[in-house]
C-alpha cells in the first residue's frame, strides 16, 4: 500500500501568530531576538513559549525538562490563536518528549504549520504517522543558517506566504547519484533520527512508495554506512521510490560520504539525488513533507530537482 498525501495547513498571512518552541537542545540566549526580528520583518507576530530559553537543571544538553518542552509544544498547538509553530533549534531531546504529547488533542486542534529540522525529525514523523498532518522540514528560528543565510530565509518565507512559488527545489549543484525519475509522497529528515525511531511503537514500518529525503551532521562515513545498513536490514527502505540527499556537514570529505551513499543506495534500482540543498549545510531549503512530488535525476549531468505537485500550504 502506497503512502497517501497528508493534510496540509493554511499558508500564513501578515499578522499571523507564530509560536517559537524549544523541543530539543537549549537555545543560546543571543540567538532568540535575531530570529524573532526576522519573523517580525515578514509581518508575523512571533511568540516565544515560556521555556524557549530553559536549560535542564542536570542535563545541560536539553532545553528544559521533557515535561516543560512537551507542554510548550502542546500549549502552542492547541491554542486557537496560534497559526504556526516553529522550532528554535535542534540538538537532542525530541525523542524524550514525543510520547508525553497528547496526540489526540493535537489531532483535534487541526492542521497548523510546523517547521524544524535535525532532531525535530522525530516530531515530523509523529505528526505524519499519528495525526496525518503535512509539515515543513525547514530552518529554525534560532539556527545559525537561518540567522545568517538570506537564501535560507527567503525559501522559508516564500514557502510560508507564497508556497506556489517554490514548487521546484534544488540548488544548482544538485546532481544524479543514480539517474532516473520517481514520484511519491515526501518523508524523512535527519538520517540518524530516522534510524533512532526504528522499533518504537509508532515508527514507520516501510517506505510504501515514498520519496525519502535524508541528510545529517557530524556523522563519520562509517556511521552513515551503519545507519543506512540498519534501515535496509530493518526493511525501513522497502518500497522506497527515490531518495533525495541534502547536506552532510562535518561528515568528513564529501567524496567519502558519496562513496557510502552510492554503495548503500545504488543497488536499490531507484533514482538518488545528491546535494539537493537542505539540512545542516550553508543553505537550507525548506522541504515540504507529506506531499506528492517528483524527483528528477537527469542522466546527462544537468541539475537534479525535487518538484512538489501541490503547494506545500493551502
What does this structure look like?
- The chain has about 325 residues and is of the alpha/beta class.
- It has two domains: about 150 residues, Rossmann fold (3-Layer(aba) Sandwich); about 140 residues, LD-carboxypeptidase A C-terminal domain-like (Glucose Oxidase, domain 1, 3-Layer(bba) Sandwich).
- Helices cover about 30% and strands about 20% of the residues.
- The protein contains ten helices and 14 strands.
- Strands 6-14-13-8-9-10-11-7 form an eight-stranded mixed β-sheet. A six-stranded mixed β-sheet has the order 2-1-3-4-5-12, sandwiched between helices.
- Helix 5 links the parallel strand 4 and strand 5.
- The mean pLDDT is about 95.
CATH homologous superfamily designation of the largest domain:
Murein tetrapeptidase LD-carboxypeptidase, N-terminal domain
What low-confidence regions span 5 or more consecutive residues with pLDDT below 50? none
Q: Per DSSP, what share of the residues sits in E-state strands of 2 or more residues?
A: 15-25%
Q: Please list the strands of the largest sheet in the order they lie side by side.
A: 6-14-13-8-9-10-11-7
CATH class value of the largest domain: Alpha Beta
Task: Please count the beta strands (DSSP E, at least 2 residues each).
Answer: 14
Query: In the CATH classification, which architecture of the largest domain applies?
Result: 3-Layer(aba) Sandwich
Number of domains: 2
Characterize the largest beta sheet: strand count, sense, and whether it forms a barrel.
8 strands, mixed
First and last CA, distance: 26 Å
SSE run: EHEHEHHEHEHHEEEHEHEHEEEE
Level of helix content? Answer: 25-40%
Mean pLDDT: 97
CATH topology of the largest domain: Rossmann fold
Per DSSP, the total helix count is 10
Amino acid at each position: 500500500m502506497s503512502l497517501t498525501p497528508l493534510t496540509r495547513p493554511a499558508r500564513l498571512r501578515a499578522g499571523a501568530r507564530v509560536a517559537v518552541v524549544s523541543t530539543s537542545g537549549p537555545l543560546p540566549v543571543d540567538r532568540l531576538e535575531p530570529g524573532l526580528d526576522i519573523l517580525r520583518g515578514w509581518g508575523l507576530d512571533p511568540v516565544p513559549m515560556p521555556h524557549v530559553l530553559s536549560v535542564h537543571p542536570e542535563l545541560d544538553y536539553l532545553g528544559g525538562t521533557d515535561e516543560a518542552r512537551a507542554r510548550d509544544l502542546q500549549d502552542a498547538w492547541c491554542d486557537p490563536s496560534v497559526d504556526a509553530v516553529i522550532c528554535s533549534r535542534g540538538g537532542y531531546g525530541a525523542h524524550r518528549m514525543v510520547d508525553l504529547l497528547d496526540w489526540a488533542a493535537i489531532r483535534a486542534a487541526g492542521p497548523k504549520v510546523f517547521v524544524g529540522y535535525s532532531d525535530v525529525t522525530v516530531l515530523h514523523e509523529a505528526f505524519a504517522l499519528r495525526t496525518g498532518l503535512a509539515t515543513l522540514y525547514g530552518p529554525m528560528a534560532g539556527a545559525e543558517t537561518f540567522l545568517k543565510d538570506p537564501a535560507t530565509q527567503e525559501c522559508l518565507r516564500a514557502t510560508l506566504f507564497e508556497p506556489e512559488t517554490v514548487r521546484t527545489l534544488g540548488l544548482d549543484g544538485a546532481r544524479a547519484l543514480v539517474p532516473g525519475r520517481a514520484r511519491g509522497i515526501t518523508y524523512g529528515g535527519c538520517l540518524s533520527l530516522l534510524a533512532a525511531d526504528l522499533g518504537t511503537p509508532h515508527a514507520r514500518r516501510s517506505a510504501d512508495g515514498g520519496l525519502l529525503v535524508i541528510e545529517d551532521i557530524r556523522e563519520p562515513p562509517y556511521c552513515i554506512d551503519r545507519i543506512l545498513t540498519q534501515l535496509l536490514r530493518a526493511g525501513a527502505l522497502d518500497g522506497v521510490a527515490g531518495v533525495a540527499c541534502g547536506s552532510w556537514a562535518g561528515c568528513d570529505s564529501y567524496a567519502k560520504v558519496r562513496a557510502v551513499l552510492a554503495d548503500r543506495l545504488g543497488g536499490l534500482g531507484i533514482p538518488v539525488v545528491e546535494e539537493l540543498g537542505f539540512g545542516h549545510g550553508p543553505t537550507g531549503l525548506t522541504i515540504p513533507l507529506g506531499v506528492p512530488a517528483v524527483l528528477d535525476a537527469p542522466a546527462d549531468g544537468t541539475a537534479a530537482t525535487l518538484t512538489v505537485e501541490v503547494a506545500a500550504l493551502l
